[in-house]
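Q: My labmate handed me this sequence with no annotations at all. I'd like to see what the chain might look like in three dimensions before we decide whether it's worth expressing. Could you predict it?
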Amino acid sequence: MHRSVGRTLLCAAAAAALVAAPLVSVSTATANPQGTGLVIAEAYLKGGSANQPFTNKFVELGNPTDSPVSVDGWSVQYRAATGTGAPSVGKLAGSVPAHGTYLVQMGSNGTNGEALPEPDAVTGLNPSGSTGTLVLADQATALTLPAGAVTTGTPGVVDLLGYGTSNTFETAVAPTGTANAVPDALTRQGTTDTDSNAADFRVTTTVTPENAAGETTQPTDPTDPTDPTDPGDGGTTPAERVTIAQLQGTGDASPYAGKTVTTDGVVTAVYATGGFNGYTVQTAGTGGALDLGKHTASDAVFVYSSATVGSVAIGDAVRLTGTVSEFNGLTELTVPTASGLTKLPAAGVVQPVPATLTFPRTDAQRESLESMLVAPQGDYTVVDNYTTNQYGEVVLASGKQRLLQPTEVARPGSAEAAAVTADNAARKVVLDDGASTNFLSAANQSIPVSWLTQGPVTVGAAATFREPVVLDYRNDSWKFQPTSPITGATPAADLPASFSDVRTAAPENVGGDIRLAGFNVLNYFPTTGDQLTGCTYYTDRDGDPVTVRGGCDARGAANADDLARQQVKIVKAINGLGADVVSLEEIENSARFGQDRDAAVATLVAALNAATGKDTWAYAKSPSKLPSSEDVIRLALIYKKDRVQPVGSSTILTDSTAFTNARQPLAQAFAPVVAKPGKGKGAQKPSAKDTFLVIANHFKSKGSGEGVDADQGDGQGASNHSRVEQAKALVTFSTAMQRQARTDKVFMLGDFNAYSEEDPVVALEDAGYTDLGPTEDAAEWSYVFGGLSGSLDHVFASPAALETVTGVDIWNINSVESVGLEYSRYDYNVTDLYRDDVYRASDHDPVVVGIDLPGVGTPGGGNPGHGGDPGHGGNPDHGGPVADALAALAALLAWLRSLFG
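A: Here is what I predict for the chain of 901 residues:
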């Protein structure tokens, strides 16, 4: 089981991409007359029957290319001729040599015939000899295949063979031979693929299995090739008796890989459903309090056996005979037929017990526990839930702290960043659901998604284990598996772990007379996809469009119903901020759709006001001078009319080339609305002392870049050069806007697409600005990616602005919640995860800042949203005669200060 340290450090998405990537590009289910991809070259489906030359059935893969092709993480799958459900899966590993073959051994109809050449993969598949469907898939989970002709580009399908009277095929089914007693096989005419099974395959009476080593028969002992008197000749080599610890060995790979062995154990977990097709066995009496300095070999192993998984139960004592292999890092014992399982008497068998220890920090120590029962000790914290709604996985970290983006807390490329990376790898483990079920696939959307159905699973929550789990290694991750598969239908009390509730209903009280906030509104587009032509969509489990996928300029909701679900969450979240000025990112630029540029922000403001029941909010109108070229998303500023007032008009940075690949910053000066002294109505004229400047930002993303913007591999992602230039241009723009607004109090808010120790942030700090998040709220972050937390969203304050700051809070309502809660995942699973609340209104968390301005006593006219908040300039006694007199006096003093400085 070779594993490098670097391999365990990949984020989930990158790791998945690497696992799936073959050594040579392979097209899926497409006609291949040029011979540039793997194909099913031969299918022998009568092994073991009378008169047959070989005992086992097989599929032989062919590689017509000049390079080897990896099949790690691939599979051969079989479905009966009339089947419509998920196929049976036989896992593959290794590679197919250039211009070579790869032999997949399958089941048998009996004992007739000789053994195959040493197979490259052993599976429990047992296809019909006369009719059925075989698939070469570039995934290890069962495909969802419609009946009928399989179309070009069907996801997961590399090649497919429908034969006999199968209902699934390429263009037309291939013929089959006669009775099982007649030796024959289906062989491809060469290695090209015309996408017609009938044209590509013929029946041949010559059966020619060949493995990757080029062997066509069982290799003989070179020291004794011909002696007919040797009693071993003509027989089969007996399986070697080994303990499970011997089978596992003390290294990364089993010393018995590729060999047939017999071992005894007690069944500790059974996965008869969900796709694992196997169970774990552990040596009797092992486990408990282990010393990992002395315990160097695991006492358990995963048994891959669809033929026997239905015959065992937890607690059974068994003797197993099968072939040892390494499947993507997990040691497996493949038992292909029922004859490989023997039940042993239960009397006198000491049941294994869970190992009680904290999560090991090294791969070597984890290897010594692979497939064993464990009772996790100590603290565990949820660090990622991105794939929970799809695969039922919850990423944990041992300890009470989240896993952090290295460049959130350390400079890129530094020793300190490397230490964070190492710590992340040492503490990460995935809590799985004992299955490979994809809850988003059409075949499984009617199965309630695991973990989330039973309640929220929030990043930062504590995970408490109440039942033992199995430690194994799948998809490049160490995982805790329940001892049987779970789904959303599993009662919460039967789950092996539970999660604490760390949700907050409102931001922390940041104090101040005025509050500012930044909010990424996740592609809020009132122009829905159905109003345009050419849009393609992501669809729900009924095939109804939910969000725009491409083909048009819209980026948000597919139709009015989806927009309503998106909008209500955003509205509740913004109104729940308690902020007076909010910068918005990722809002529609309506000018791109032939409308007034402000149409989208006006729509959102109208929805906000409808929710408050009065004319609470307004927006900073677009200036007359606009950039010559703009993105389809833009920046906007909204404000509460009775709390602040705009000073002058807004300004967009138009004279810098730094933002040609990003959204141009938007600036607007504001001042508090302060009541005039005395009993007169109206607001006092803004004082220059109380004027502050807000600049909204959305820098270039990390996802793409070339040349100087190529990813440098230092943790900052692509387009870092552009973001640094944008930071420099922002500093120049801020200086000009301060002169224009006659204030040195400036707050630069938004999505800077840079973590807190990366070059763009340092450039702003070197220019004299303070990043308020790490300074005031260092224990919270605004974004989670690949299981690592950090802040892409910032508020930078000038020195004068910093003096006014009373508090900062990152309100964790979005990044820490499962994507399954988003409006964009509505009705993707039979479990309705959507709620019209604030949680997962976006993918970024809002940042809230409180400020006290020198000339402000009681702003506004007693906004009910703030008037009773003693930390927000309001009077807690609100409305009494004494309070009125004090408020009038405070206003008078503020007026006098504004006049006389």
